[in-house]
Amino acid sequence: MPFITGGYPSLDVTTSAIESIADAGASIIEVGIPFSDPIADGPVISASMHDALQAGADPHSVFNAVRVARAKTSVGLIAMVSVSIVTRIGAKTFISQAADSGFNGLIVPDMDLSQASELSHLCESRDLALALLVAPTTSPDRMAQITNSCRGFIYLLARSGLTGEQKSSPEIADSVNAIRSFSKLPIAAGFGISTPEHVAAVTKYADAAIVGSALVRRMSQGDPVKAAADFTRLLATGLRTGLPASSNSN
Q: In this predicted structure, what is the pLDDT of residue 29?
């Protein structure tokens, strides 16, 4: 489940990258809606969001880019968006525009649980997934509340802290088992997953591995569309074989 920043380095790249990443082996693609104060994002994704905003990207232009891509691919598309953007546009309007553009769901990392019920119902009305975040430190009571508010899948933070590339594979078995005691929804794990080896380790327990910073960084080097597709193809070897890939994955 690769992550790209909408509008980075351009909206045309976003449209083309969605198609190329899908062809390279992604089952679902997460598209970040640029935000001036990224939530828990490390320096790579924060910088990409800053650049996208400077280039004029906003929720509506990202929706348009996704709409063009949707006409060319059936890959699952999930929007990562701050609740402040949803609130500013209006939850009902935002959900409608997201669904009409071709998104299949939302991840709202900073939403207060008191707002979750309304947004979950709105997503249900448009058949959109809604994923909230579960951290390694989340208490059982709060985990029950979070998972009960999710639709489609649950986002597990594979590590505490900020997003960014890491050398070691995350240990998620205990967290996955805890979540599955409350919910049968699929679990996608993200944060610090950056190699095929990490993908293999994560998908041994979770249903999907989310890769963000490592892919966005590569998109800043050379041809962004080709870089995204090539890296996705490499990451997917972790899904296909569960075996370590060549050392040049780093």
A: 98
118 carries an active-site annotation: no
- Class at the top of the CATH hierarchy for domain 3-242: alpha beta
3-state SS of 30-99 is EEECCCCCCCCCCHHHHHHHHHHHHCCCCHHHHHHHHHHHHCCCCCEEEEECCHHHHHHHCHHHHHHHHH
User: Where along the chain do its domains lie?
Assistant: 3-242
Say whether 127 is catalytic: no
> Which of these is catalytic: 23, 37, 41, 230?
41
Kindly state the average pLDDT of the residues 194-213. 93
Q: What is the pLDDT of residue 240?
A: 58
In the Cβ-directed half-sphere of 135, how many Cα atoms lie within 13 Å?
A: 11
pLDDT confidence tier of residue 244, bands split at 50, 70 and 90: very low
Residue 221 pLDDT exceeds 80: yes
Say which of 19, 30, 165, 197 is annotated catalytic.
30
Over range 69-84, report the average pLDDT. Answer: 96
Question: For helices 59-70 and 91-101, what crossing angle results, to 10°?
Answer: 30
